[in-house]
Amino acid sequence: MASVCGSTLSLMDAGVPIKAPVAGIAMGLVMGEDGKYVILTDIEGIEDANGDMDFKVAGTSQGITALQLDIKLKGMSIEILAEALSQAHHARLEILDKITQAISVTRAELSPSLPGSISTMAPKPSILVTFPV
Prior knowledge:
single chain; alpha+beta; 3 helices
């Protein structure tokens, strides 16, 4: 989910107007045979591969914009899912706080290194032609 956070920072630094910063967090679950479990925050590849749940959550401070869930169990209680969502919410807000400490608002001017485009309308039939700049 670092790609989500990095994309937010890059867009804001380049002056691309976005509605709100977005952060992502990878959650995991390890379930014991006795039914006891641990919800993991900011999992790595080995935890993803060997855990019982892989749960990615992305969003702004206002809410979730995307999520993805894989489980290796036959089922999972709604209480565990709610706990994982709550834990992800707190982690996402902490990450968003770090993002806004690094860059609180989108830069006022677009970066000169951003790719651009020029659009023009061709005569009949109306065809929109776009040229990369």
